[in-house]
Amino acid sequence: MTPLPAWTEAERAALDAAPVTPNAVRAALAEAALHPSRRLGQNFLIDRNTVAVLLRAAGVAEGDEILEIGPGLGCLTAGLLGAGARVAAIEKDHRLAARLRTAFAPLIDSGRLELVEADALDVDIAGMFAAGPWKWVANLPYVVGGRLLAAAGEWENPPEKIVVTIQKEVADKLVARPGSDAYGLLGVLVSRVYAGRVVHAIPPTCFFPRPEVRSSVAVLERRPEPLCDGAAAGTYRRLARAAFSARRKTIAKALAGELGANPAGTLAAAGIDPAARAEILPPEAFARLACISGANGTA
Questions:
Q1: Would you place residue 205 in the very low, low, confident or very high pLDDT band (cuts 50, 70, 90)?
Q2: SS3 category, 8
Q3: Per-residue b or e along 173-185, where b marks 16 or more CB atoms closer than 10 Å to that residue's CB
Q4: pLDDT class for 298, splitting at 50, 70, 90?
Q5: Distance, CA of 210 to CA of 193 (rounded, Å)
Q6: What is the residue-wise DSSP string for 62-93?
């Protein structure tokens, strides 16, 4: 890691000017003639406490490598940079990207901030962080949050910690227990690599414009070892998707096309009741099944 240079007055001024309060955010949007896009799920943070919660939950420290998706007006970006992190921020909205390039020009020039103007779904994030530990901290746009979180564990070098604001419903799915109403495919996919918890509830008043839903700060910490890896990881994802796409069926029927001629026997070998349904099976059960079915050549 290349050491960062000493702070300049211009960098400090750029951080201090980042809009955080409701009035500052409204003024920044008005000055740039910007209107939040519902299509892009733009709800800007206007609460210093939530920024502090994100920084504290992520344990952001000097020299940390951080991914931020959806920096918006730079409220959280300024907090991350101010804590001494090097930030790679991906912004889809060209209007916001142009403003960030101007507002944070000294920090871009010094290498503290890399700004990528693109749809995060189209960016090779794994290639951006090919080696070394890194974290993902963001006020995630609701429209892409779940898809990005589901993909994180598939990256070659997944982040060691993910701390995001996300729609409460999605956060609940990330940490749901088997048998609960929120338990489903997203939680199972994420749990192969991460253990999650929800650390903070965020009311709609902490955003502008106010979203119609409540939000949460979710923390995903990378397991010392994934529940399964290598070829079994692909089998795990395939079995989970098949199981939850037919969740009203027994697991034996839902996976009949995946487990070969004797699905009940393969399930029993993995310690799974063939009459069970997907929503009561923990991620560990899917991991055992992926390893056994792969070894048997049935999936």
A1: very high
A2: coil
A3: bbbbebeeeebbb
A4: low
A5: 33
A6: TT-EEEEE--TTSHHHHHHHHTT-EEEEEE--
DSSP 197-257: EEEEEE-GGGEESPPSS-EEEEEEEE-SS-SS-THHHHHHHHHHHHHHHTTTS-HHHHTTT
Q: Dig out the tokens for 105 from the structure.
A: 């020009």
Instruction: Name residue 138's beta-bridge partners.
Output: 164
- pTM of the predicted model, to two decimals? 0.94
Flag whether pLDDT at 129 surpasses 70. yes
For the purposes of burial, counting CB atoms within 10 Å of the CB of 3, is it exposed (0-12), middle (13-18) or buried (19 or more)?
A: exposed
Could you give the percent of the chain with pLDDT greater than 70?
97
- Rounded-to-integer distance, Cα 59 and Cα 216, Å: 18
**Where do the domains of the chain lie, and which CATH numbers do they carry?**
9-222 (3.40.50.150), 231-296 (1.10.8.100)
For residues 32-43, average pLDDT: 84
pLDDT of residue 295: 55
Rounded Cα distance, 296 and 284, in Å: 18
